[in-house]
From TrEMBL:
Keywords: Monooxygenase, Oxidoreductase. It comes from Gluconobacter vitians. InterPro entries: ABM_dom, AI-2_Isomerase_LsrG, Dimeric_a/b-barrel. SUPFAM superfamilies: Dimeric alpha+beta barrel. Residues 3-92 form the ABM domain. Coiled coil: none annotated. PANTHER family: ABM DOMAIN-CONTAINING PROTEIN, QUINOL MONOOXYGENASE YGIN-RELATED. This is Antibiotic biosynthesis monooxygenase. The lineage of its organism: Bacteria, Pseudomonadati, Pseudomonadota, Alphaproteobacteria, Acetobacterales. It comes from the Bacteria. GO terms for molecular function: monooxygenase activity.
């Protein structure tokens, strides 16, 4: 069964462009992972400093492989001084229909 989640990140003042560039690079890396089915990055129309990332992986094993990637670890370390709270807020989803 697919593993889906979303993550939100709020850029600190003056850090939006840097965060956007990092997310763009990450998207390319994650989309190249064999188990990635979806990786989309958005900003809120009413707040361009708030990023919303939707992710779906083929299954739990694909998600675990994603979590073990070097590009993911580097991204999470790099964003610490760029976002509120030092990282993203992640919500896991269950399919209803």
């Amino acid at each position: 069964m697919a593993k889906s989640l979303y993550a939100t990140l709020k850029a600190l003042p003056g850090k939006r462009e840097t965060l956007r560039d990092l997310l763009t690079k990450l998207a390319g890396d994650v989309r190249a992972e064999p188990g990635c089915e979806r990786f989309m990055v958005y900003t809120l129309a009413s707040d361009p400093d708030l990023f919303h990332v939707e992710e779906t992986y083929r299954d739990d094993a694909a998600f675990e492989a994603h979590m073990a990637t070097k590009h993911g670890r580097v991204f999470n370390q790099t964003i610490t001084p760029l976002v509120e709270g030092g990282g993203s807020e992640v919500v896991f989803l269950d399919v209803v229909i």
